[in-house]
Amino acid sequence: MAQISCKDLSFSYDGETVLSGINFSLEAGSYLCIVGENGSGKSTLMKGLLGLKTPSTGTIELGDGLKPTEIGYLPQQTELQRDFPASVYEVVLSGRLNSMGRRFFYNAEDKAAVEENMERLGIENLRDKCYMELSGGQQQRVLLARAMCATKKLLLLDEPVTGLDPKATNEMYNLIKLINLCDNTSVIMISHDIHEAVRYATHILHLGHEQLFFGTTREYRQSDLARRFVGGGRA
After folding, report:
1. 20 to 30 A from 137, CA-CA: which of 17, 77, 152, 168?
2. Which residues are bridge partners to 130 per DSSP?
3. What is the pTM (predicted TM-score) of this model?
């Protein structure tokens, strides 16, 4: 069974269908970019995958032993979240909350996961810094480390480079790809930048209130849809 499989999904708000006809399956280690214009249904689908919104029709099935509590999530940041008054260590450690079950305290395994992921993302020197005092790029590394503490199987990333400068953007994309390749961690990322999507992803899901395309990046590059949105010379 595929690690995640969506069949005949549709979503509605106040009785009005906003996204329909979603059908795709991903194997472990895949890297899917969800692309489309603003308002095309990308965030709605992400909420569905996270269990935050119930589909009007269809099913979402998790395979490979994956549990809903084992999905790592990096949301879009709001101004309020950027000003969160906690230390870097505390923010990263909070990624272990779903794995605690009925435990009231973090254990040695939780703390070891924090140390490992902070080191991997190069933020161990920031552990005692206040999150709100960090640069945008540093904050995103912290949130990525937090998401990694929640999973070794599936990361869901909602436009993780929004607001970052070009250097921080490139570093974040490279970190995500390394996690995908080195850990065989599946990645599902919403991206507003189709050019970067086809550079890093193994699969593309293009939405426009319905599923306009799903397939490998190679297949997408050869599609008429890619020629319209990316341009023949750059796809």
Report:
1. 152
2. 87
3. 0.90
